[in-house]
Design a protein that fits this description.
Radius of gyration: 22 Å
Structural class: alpha/beta
Shape: globular
CATH architecture of the largest domain: 3-Layer(aba) Sandwich
Largest sheet: 6 strands, mixed
Strand order of the largest sheet: 1-5-4-2-3-6
CATH superfamily of the largest domain: Alpha-D-Glucose-1,6-Bisphosphate, subunit A, domain 3
Strand content: 15-25%
Helix content: 25-40%
Number of strands: 21
CATH class of the largest domain: Alpha Beta
Distance between the termini: 38 Å
């Protein structure tokens, strides 16, 4: 009996050779092909790309075989390609969608399978459910066409999507002021798809780019996983200080997420970065438009929305919620707590490269380093403090969920509880405008406990209460 495959927050992920196998990748590709055909896409093109994980290029080739056998055509990237570049290529090539072989920030044991729609964005939950239902139960039901014959028949075209993406970036941001600013930038692409991109984009002027972890190593040494949060960024933060750099720019394994370190070797957390990027668009660039945020990200965005008279929309966690809302509202920016940010004028997909360029441009325009930018932000919205703890768990989710609902705490960490939001997880709203969120990961057997508060001295107490409510203490 074949494994039942379900799509989580952002696609399907599994352990290589255990459940992430060629047979299961082909089954997923058949489900996506059937979905596209069901929606009238026969004969259209699909972009297929991959990251630098173990055998990713071969899994991508296997997916391409299935698509072509089902009457679709494939643009296959000629090498490991950042997720935002794959997403842009869907629109640029007028394709029906994309398959991206990547497990993003997961441990090195894993790989993944993401799908994207004709806008280059995540497919909404109802579409993902439809794809799941179309995945055949047995690999024997999968159609295949030998890859070595695809190119000769014109069904598969290998292409380099980088030049078109770079020209697109130039329409969104003037790179010359960053090149000429004389910044000293440390870049950590975490052994992944972001390697070489900032050097390519910003070389040729006074700004100096130094890269670490910039070749392929699917074991991801010096970090537990290619996720741009501590402790995975600690080597980069230390290198920034020892190299006397102005900023650390980190992209995750597939380069759709951004991490930032300041000039003093301190991590600038994802909520702070999101608020900085929103402030940059509103104040520095003078843009106006909706802000879309997941319920696990910062309330600083609500304050900025009120200050600049722009609407703020809150969604469930994942770009399968953010992307459709961005399209619906023509949002200026959309993002989530994991460090993924998307922008109007680009595709509705997380883009760690563009987000990094925008942050560097903010530094240039305001003549300020990251620590100074944070001080400026806090002078507008007040200081906010954030913490997140991820814990593996075993056993039944439903009983744990019921335990959380039954807790009904009057206070958490010394803060009065003013409400409970169960849109996606369990978000306890606190009197100071902060919150505690307990949520199950959509891709791993992990419970996440997060908080944001305006009282630094309450952070650890809120987290400890959250762990107890979740039954993890």
């Amino acid at each position: 009996m074949s494994q039942n495959i379900t799509f989580g927050t952002d696609g399907w992920r599994g352990r290589i050779a255990e459940d992430y196998t060629f047979d299961n990748v082909r089954r997923c590709a058949q489900g996506f092909a059937s979905y596209l055909l069901k929606h009238g896409k026969k004969g259209e093109w699909v972009v297929v790309g991959h990251d630098k994980r173990f055998d990713s290029e071969y899994f991508a080739g296997a997916a391409a075989e299935v698509l072509c056998a089902n009457g679709l055509r494939v643009y296959l990237t000629d090498g490991a390609t950042p997720t935002p570049v794959i997403a842009f290529s869907v629109v640029n090539q007028k394709a029906a969608g994309a398959i991206n072989i990547t497990a993003s920030h997961n441990p090195p044991t894993d790989n993944g399978f993401k799908v994207r729609d004709e806008n280059g964005g995540a497919i909404a939950p109802d579409g993902l459910k439809e794809i799941e239902e179309l995945i055949p139960g047995m690999v024997g039901e999968v159609k295949r066409f030998p890859q070595n014959e695809l190119e000769s028949k014109g069904l598969l075209v290998r292409f380099d999507p980088s030049s078109a993406y770079i020209e697109h970036l130039k329409q969104l941001i003037d790179l010359n002021p960053i090149r000429d600013a004389g910044l000293k930038v440390m870049v950590d692409p975490m052994w992944g798809n972001g390697a070489g991109w900032f050097t390519r984009l910003l070389s040729g002027g006074k700004t100096r780019i130094t890269e670490i972890h910039n070749h392929r190593n699917p074991l991801f040494p010096e970090m537990t996983r290619p996720e741009p949060i501590p402790p995975n960024v600690d080597v980069g933060l230390a290198a920034t200080v020892s190299n006397h750099d102005d900023v650390l720019i980190v992209t995750d394994g597939d380069a759709d997420r951004l991490g930032v370190g300041d000039e003093n070797g301190n991590f600038v957390n994802q909520l702070e970065v999101y608020a900085l990027l929103a402030y940059y668009l509103l104040e520095v660039r003078g843009e106006r438009g909706a802000i879309v945020k997941t319920l696990s990200t910062t309330s600083m965005l609500d304050k900025l929305g009120k200050m600049y008279h722009v609407p703020v929309y809150e969604t469930g966690v994942g770009f399968k919620f953010v992307a459709p809302k961005m399209i619906e509202t023509n949002a200026m920016i959309g993002g989530e707590e994991s460090g993924g940010y998307a922008f109007r004028g680009n595709v509705p997909e997380r883009d760690g490269i563009l987000a990094g360029l925008y942050l560097l441009d903010m530094m240039v325009k305001l003549n300020a380093k990251p620590a100074e930018l944070l001080s400026l932000l806090f002078s507008k919205v007040g200081p906010h403090y954030y913490e997140r703890v991820d814990t593996e768990f075993e056993g039944d989710r439903k009983s744990r969920q019921q335990r959380i609902l039954d807790a009904k705490p009057a206070t958490i960490g010394g803060e009065k509880v003013t409400g409970l939001n169960t849109t996606d997880g369990y978000k306890f709203c606190l009197e100071d405008g902060g919150w505690l969120l307990i949520r199950f990961s959509g891709t791993e057997p992990i419970m996440r406990v997060y908080t944001e508060t305006t009282h630094q001295e309450h952070v650890q107490a809120i987290i400890e209460d959250g762990l107890r409510i979740a039954g993890l203490r």
